[in-house]
Amino acid sequence: MSAKIRRIAGRLGALVLAGLLMFVLGVGTGPIPALGRALDPARGAWASADGGRLPAGGRLHVPGLTQQAQVSFDNEGLASITAASDDDLFRAQGYVTARFRLTQMDLLRRLGSGRLAELSGPAAVESDTFELQLGLRRTAEAAWTQTPADSPAGKALSAYTAGVNARIAELEDGHDWPALYGLTGVHPGRWTPVDSLVVQEVLTQQLDFSTVPLGYALLDRSLGPELTKAWFPVLPATPQQPYDPGPYQDLGTAPIPERNANAADPAALRPGPGPAPTAQPLDTAHAAAAATAVLARADHLPAGALHLHPDSNAWAANGPAVAGGRAMLAGDPHLQLSLPSDWFEIALRSPGLDVTGASLPGMPAVLIGHNEHISWSLTDVQNQSTLFYSETTSPEHPGAYYWNGAWRPLEHVEYTIPVRGGDPVPLTVDLTVHGPVITRDGQTTSVDWMGNIPSPDLAALLSISTAGDYGGFREALRGWKAPTQNFVYADDQGNIGIVAPGYYPLVKSGEPWLPLSGEGAADVAGTIPFDAVPQVYNPPSHAVVTANQRPVGADYPYYIGTTQDFDPGYRATQINTGLRAGPALGPDDFGALQSDVTDRLAAQLVPELLKALDGAPLDERQRTARDLLTGWNAAMDEKSPQASIWWRFLIAYLGEVFQPWWTDRKVPVDLARRHLALERTPPALVQDLEQWTLHDQGNPAFTPPGGPARDARAAMRDAFAKATAGLAADLGPDPASWNWGRLHRRVIPSITQVPALGHGPLPAGGDPWTANNADGGMDSDFGPSWRMVVRWTGPATADARAVYPGGQSENPASPWYRNLIDLWWRGEYLPLRTAAEHGSDDLKWTLTSEG
To answer: Among the residues of 31-178, which ranges form H helices?
Structure first.
């Protein structure tokens, strides 16, 4: 494409973008406000025409650099930075990232800081209120206070901040703001190190903050304690594949740090007047009312703000499992998909650092990738990191709560939420020793979330980035606290392993999967010591796999969560099977596993369904559907009618078994839709059906309350009839035409929620249980946000490849906005190059402090 054609395409794209934004800002949609300013030819959306062009090579001014830094971009926009010092390197990283992702970075800090309404208007006040109560910015401020200015992390944050502000100063001087700011007149303020830590906290919230205990409170109240414990148990009844099989040591507890600004300081609490309340058990009705209030508010938060889906695959293999005998690693974190992506691919090189991989816009360094000797990727541990406390309050003691034998005063933090197009909203956040109060409806409830304890994640990442072996890698993770993550490892010497650092809260007493008493007896006593967290190194199997399954066996001595927290393990089973299926594997085989759409649950249950249908009276359509399932390989392919039949059967089977109980016990399914997945595929209930169908077909759950006796096979026949009838109504009478892609699609939405700026929805394969994950409904916007494969072929020699669904630029007029999506969709990769491996023909920038 010639430069002239690119300019024309860029300006046309800008005009389209301008028109879309004017419509959005006129009527309002998603998080974007209504009543945007008229187009200003000197700024706003018109500036997107320049921003949409490919950047030109040359010299750019970045104040504070001690020497020139070199920046390269390949044809796909993938970036590399080489600098003379770490300070120059991170200053350049901040500048380059802000050149391509400033709007995204600003929206992330606004989300975590409770300042979305300032840009988006009254619709965002609910989100801002929740985030200010939860306290991400308070935690970020505490973390920055605890970061020594002369430490590697402190220096990196300060340098990155200076680079971001160099870009913001350019925009101020040229009146060349990205379209959203040009149209609204609300411009991003200067960046600070706290803003970077807020961005870190937003990711922690997405991966670690869960409302599962509130969902359990609703079940406990409606379904009853007995069935709740039986159907949503702590330990799964189905076979699991823990990567850490034990034996385990009980090393007691590690101390948990003193609470930050999100909890009252215990030492400062003074006993209040008045006698102690009469000891009473928790009131389940009031706890359920509080849960209802919080969950109803959570339904109005932006997509991805809460942890609702199991996230990610990562595995490594070595020795005879790998062609060539060394080590190989694969990783694909599953997140809410968006344009622009959560990731910005970059290679960083200085005399002390040489690393490449996926960075988080707004944070220095690389989160997932490899250096000269080691590679790593992450999955979420899924342990319970969020505890809810029912505080004892009394009208006789206003402004106080009862804790550890005395009435204590609540602490308060005051805020004012600025609202674009509306009056400022005052907010008072009350703090208890457990954390912030999030509701007073039904029951005063506070939240103790491990993400509200400052975590030196950047310091750990910088240490990982310079580690040369497993010992250095593991030691670096000793400082990682939140979110709890499975760090998967492979190195150039052929070693593999997993370490899962973080805060695993242990309470003194009580059932932490339910709201706990706030009077002191159920407080957090400490955390699992680092040496006792799940971990494995060079196992005899020559493979380590984590796909959010429970990482340890049933005899692990510590509580870490329930079946509703962890993935059922079907992805882990399929990956383990693939790693052990045949001859030694290469990078293409690992890539094929990342794109695999085999549903292991289907592989187990469809044969039982076929047995149940033997001899059953079936009409012609049902017989055809049954015959299609015979011999099916359980692959959720886009063009597979069997995939549609299976999925509709599974949903009907879940409904056939459990819906009569929800109706009879008045379980609030509508509210629990997002938070317990009762209308989708809840992990606990799916495992129940698996266990009962394979081993307990006479389980009483199959008989509806007050109905005639029924077993699993009768329930399956009823579910199959409903599934085929529904498919015929939706897709036509011919089962052979019921392709999965007619029901199931993928969509990658824009962060603006403007459909034309997103991608799709388009027909797609996969489901929540496949390695190529597609959770989040029939128009799935959740899945592999980054795919990476690193094969170590010799000392300091790696064959690395990666791809993500998006592009480096956030500007829809840029050819680098969505240019990587098709590769990702097809399961293809690009080389993941180090700075030294970037080509001589790349587009070059020279960053200099000279004006």
So the answer is: 47-52, 86-113, 117-120, 125-134, 136-145, 152-174
Residue positions counted in the chain = 851
pLDDT of residue 38: 26
- For residue 668, say if its preceding peptide bond is cis, omega within 30 degrees of 0: no
What pLDDT does 280 receive? Answer: 52
Helix then strand then coil, % of the chain, to nearest 5: 40, 20, 40
Task: For residue 189, give every residue at least 6 positions away whose Cβ sits within 8 Å of its Cβ, in sequence order, or none.
Answer: none
Distance CA 143, CA 381 (A): 23
**447 near 387, Cβ under 8 Å?**
yes
Q: What is the pLDDT of residues 284-305, one digit of tens each?
A: 788 888 888 888 887 777 776 7
Phi-psi region for residue 544, left (φ > 0), alpha (ψ -120 to 50) or beta? beta
Q: What is the pLDDT at residue 777?
A: 84
Residue 224 confidence (pLDDT): 93
d(CA 119, CA 179): 13
Sequence-ordered alpha helix ranges (H) in 630-777: 641-665, 669-675, 683-695, 712-731, 740-743
Q: What is the Cα–Cα distance from 485 to 312, expressed in whole angstroms?
A: 10
Q: Which helix (H) or strand (E) holds 233?
A: none
How far apart, in whole angstroms, are the C-alpha atoms of residue 381 and residue 495? 22
Q: Are the C-beta atoms of residues 99 and 85 closer than 8 Å to each other?
A: no
Torsion of Cα atoms, 91 then 97 then 103 then 104, to 10°:
-110
Question: For strand 445-449 and strand 386-390, is the pairing parallel, antiparallel, or unpaired?
Answer: antiparallel
Report the pLDDT value the prediction gives residue 45, as an integer from 0 to 100.
Answer: 36
Predicted confidence (pLDDT) per residue in 183-224, tens digit: 788 999 999 999 999 999 999 999 999 988 998 999 999 999
What is the CB-side half-sphere exposure of residue 168 using CA atoms within 13 A? 18
Residue for token digits 């934004």?
21
Domain assignments of the chain as residue spans, ordered by start: 600-634+639-743
776-781 contacts: CB < 8 A, separation 24 or more? 776/309, 776/336, 777/680, 778/743, 778/744, 778/745, 779/745, 779/746, 779/747, 780/744, 780/745, 780/746, 780/747, 781/303, 781/336, 781/337, 781/338, 781/746, 781/747, 781/748, 781/749
Distance CA 387, CA 560 (A): 12
Alpha-carbon distances, residue 232 vs 241, 341, 531, 658 (angstroms): 19, 35, 29, 13
The C-alpha atoms of residue 689 and residue 695 are separated, in whole angstroms, by 10
848 token code pair: 């200099």
The verdict on domain 600-634+639-743 having CATH code 2.30.30 is no
Per-residue pLDDT at 825: 97
Enumerate residue ranges in the chain where pLDDT < 70.
1-54, 259-260, 268, 270, 272-282, 304, 310, 669-680, 851
pLDDT at 672: 56
In the beta sheet, which residues pair with residue 5?
none
Residue-level pLDDT at 31: 39
